[in-house]
C-alpha cells in the first residue's frame, strides 16, 4: 500500500467540542478494509471528526459516531462515518480519544 513518506502517525485532530482525537496507522488500515474506502479518503475522514455531526452510541457510552456528507466520495456513497472511542489513561488520567474505524454509507 502506498503511503506518503513524510506522514507522521498517529494523526491528531480536534473535534468541534475541543476533544483531541487521534488516528493510528493500524486503525486506518482497518478502515481501508471496508467497501469503497481508499487511502485518498483519509482527509475526508479526519474532516468528519472535525466538522461532522456527532452522536453517542446507544449501547456504549464511550463510543461516538461522526458523520459527514461529502460529494468527493466514490459513487454510490454519500456520507463517511467515523467511529471514535473516548476514554482516559495514565496517572493522572489523560484523555485517550481515538478512531476505531471509518466507513462509507448511502444516505438519502
Describe the model.
The chain has one domain. Helices cover 17% and strands 35% of the residues. The chain has a four-stranded antiparallel beta sheet with strand order 3-4-5-8. A two-stranded antiparallel ribbon has the order 1-2. It starts with 10 loop residues before the first strand and ends with a strand.
Features:
2 helices; globular; two-stranded antiparallel sheet; 17% helix; alpha+beta; 108 residues
Q: Summarize the biggest pleated sheet.
A: 4 strands, antiparallel
Termini, distance in Å?
32 Å
- The total domain count is 1
Low-confidence stretches: none
Which oligomerization state do the chains in this entry correspond to?
single chain
Mean pLDDT: 94
Helix-strand sequence: EEHHEEEEEE
Q: What percent of the residues sit in helical stretches (DSSP H or I)?
A: 10-25%
Q: How large, in whole angstroms, is the Cα Rg? A: 14 Å
Please specify the SSE layout and strand pairing.
Blueprint: E1 11-14, E2 20-23, H1 25-32, H2 42-51, E3 53-56, E4 63-69, E5 79-85, E6 88-89, E7 94-95, E8 98-105
Antiparallel strand pairs: 1-2, 3-4, 4-5, 5-8, 6-7
Short description:
By secondary structure, the chain is α+β, with helices and mostly antiparallel strands.
Amino acid at each position: 500500500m502506498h503511503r506518503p513518506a513524510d506522514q507522521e502517525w498517529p494523526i491528531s485532530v480536534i473535534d468541534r467540542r475541543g476533544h483531541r482525537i487521534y488516528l493510528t496507522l493500524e486503525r486506518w488500515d482497518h478502515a481501508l478494509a471496508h467497501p469503497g474506502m481508499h487511502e485518498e479518503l483519509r482527509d475526508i475522514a479526519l474532516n468528519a471528526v472535525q466538522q461532522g455531526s456527532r452522536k453517542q452510541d446507544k449501547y456504549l457510552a464511550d463510543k461516538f459516531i461522526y458523520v459527514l456528507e461529502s460529494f468527493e466520495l466514490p459513487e454510490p456513497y454519500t456520507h463517511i462515518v467515523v467511529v471514535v472511542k473516548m476514554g482516559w489513561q495514565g496517572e493522572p488520567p489523560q484523555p485517550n480519544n481515538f478512531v476505531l474505524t471509518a466507513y462509507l454509507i448511502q444516505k438519502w
